[in-house]
Amino acid sequence: MYDFLIAPFADFEFMRRALVGAIALALAGAPIGVFLILRRMALSGDAMAHAILPGAALGYLAAGLSLPAMTLGGLAAGFAVALLSGVVARATILREDASLAGLYLVSLALGVTLVSLRGSNVDLLHVLFGNVLALDDQTLLLLAAIATVTLTGFALLYRPLVMETLDPAFTAVTTGAGAVTQLAFLALLVLNLVAGFQALGTLMSVGLMMLPAAAARLWTQRLDAAIALAAALGLVAAYCGLVASYAWGLPSGPAIVLAAGFLYVVSLVFGRAGGALRNLPKRRHLEA
Amino acid sequence: MTAALSLSDVTLGYDGHPAVHHLTGRFEPGSLTAVCGPNGAGKSTLVKALAGVLKPIGGRIDRGGLLARDIGYLPQAAEIDRAFPIDVFDFVALGRIRRAGLFGRLGAADRKAAQEAISAVGLEGLERRQIGALSGGQTQRMMFARLMAQDSRVILLDEPFAAVDERTMGDLVGLIAQWHAQGRTLVAVLHDFALVRAYFPRTLLLARECIAWGPTDDALAASNLAKAQAMSEAFDDDAGDCERAA
Predict the structure, then answer these.
(1) What's the ipTM?
(2) Which residue range forms the structural domain that includes residue A252?
């Protein structure tokens, strides 16, 4: 048991680093994911994650697999897309989902092309799927810093964000803080997408954000409980995914996302506040 | 503070398409006015502009020294997200946000005001119920409770009785009458002429422009209603610039 559950982390530094990085992602991703779901932006979050790629790829072209260059590029691209998709939705007849799908396809293709201009397939894989087992000090510090900023930011933003999500018109009239709140939330989202990009790659960076949050929503009707549960599920997924990837030689990023996906599927079926089986009469459970 | 709302030559619209033309007039302090008119007449647009959500394309709205944020605004019920996980007490307590501040603590007075408002609309005992579990009528009662907790001198109601049962409507009309008696200025978008004639002393009949604005019996005279109907049949959603603007 020890060999299976603890030894990988006791014996290998890269496993410990991966665990710390994934914990930072899961903690910060929980509130973001829960609010993305409440704001019906789950798909926008994913689309924006892809849209970060060309920015990071430009950083890569300029400086190779350099953390600061790729992070700066990713942040710039993320903010640009967050603002652009709003503008496109307002200025054209396309709804926001169509404009996001457009942006995301173009960004993904552009990003892959840019990386291929200079790099090998290994680098491309790194960019697309991340490399949670190769987090260096710099990257860990970045993930921890982003998690700190995110959690502090949410402490401040919590009430306005609840109001803005629940009743935008009332919030706009009563506080005048609607637009600022939206922008602050988008900024935190982009920060966390960049963090996720470092560990899980552009294709799955929202994995530790969306799956635990979606699962948590199926268990509770309370917002604070949903966020806490999402964080807890994210931690469990991070740990189990890493253990599984070590034990069975699975790629670690996908293993973490699969572990989160497993929790999500279980919640879909059994979740008390929204799962498929919640309406079955109690009696039949007892008989079975 | 006079708590009056004055409009001078106000034109409102979205994306440059005017929805309300050249409206001039005044909601007097302490008045109770119904806004009526055919579908698409610009009633909700007008209320949004009074609330400060929508900036006029032309003209000026004078709130008599009140900030837009000091106005109590009841959006159409469809505009709130009823799936949001929040309970009735917390929802009503949001009405105190102007007093408590966006980041401040809700004080004992705020909690008391919220609780009193919940009792006043007849939702006592449902404080910890999720808003998604309420019926349509209960939801509207809760929205009124939030307005009451806001304690505003000017209150704007956008279709407060849409999808509401008779009894709830009776109770809510009673609240409106009570607010009126307290000297608050009230403006409500309504469809039910019988209700308007029974409870609302003044009426603004709107069909993209002002058809009539005055005592309800005069404003809702048959000739005015016919005129509003005729105007509504000529509504052109693709109208460009305002013709009379030139």
Answers:
(1) 0.79
(2) 2-287
Nearest CB neighbour to A38, from listed B84, B97, B98: B84
Q: Which CATH number fits domain B1-66+154-169+184-246: 3.30.420.40, 3.40.50.300, 3.40.50.620, 3.40.50.11540?
A: 3.40.50.300
Q: Sign of torsion, CA B93 B98 B104 B107?
A: negative
- B15-35 residue pLDDT tens: 767 788 888 999 999 999 999
Quick count: other Cβ atoms within 10 Å of Cβ B172?
A: 21
Return residue ranges of chain B for CATH 3.40.50.300: 1-66+154-169+184-246
Q: Which of A166, A217, A272 to probe by mutation at the B interface, max B CB count within 10 Å?
A: A166
Whether B14 contacts chain A with CB within 8 A: no
The structural domain count of chain A equals 1
Laid out side by side, the sheet with B202-206 consists of B71-74, B154-158, B185-189, B32-36, B202-206, B210-215
**Are A186 and A194 in contact, with CB atoms under 8 Å apart?**
no
The partner residue sitting opposite A170, judged by closest CB among B73, B103, B130, is B73
- Kindly list the residues from chain A whose CB atom is less than 8 angstroms away from the CB atom of residue B155: none
pLDDT in tens, A220-278: 989 999 999 999 999 999 999 999 999 999 989 999 999 999 999 999 999 888 888 87
Task: Select the residue of B69, B80, B86 nearest A223 (Cβ to Cβ).
Answer: B86
CATH of the domain at A254: 1.10.3470.10
Check A174 against B97: CB less than 8 A apart.
yes
Chain B interface, mutation test: which of A170, A171, A175, A227, most B Cβ atoms within 10 Å?
A170
d(CA A212, CA A27): 10
Q: What is the pTM of this model?
A: 0.85
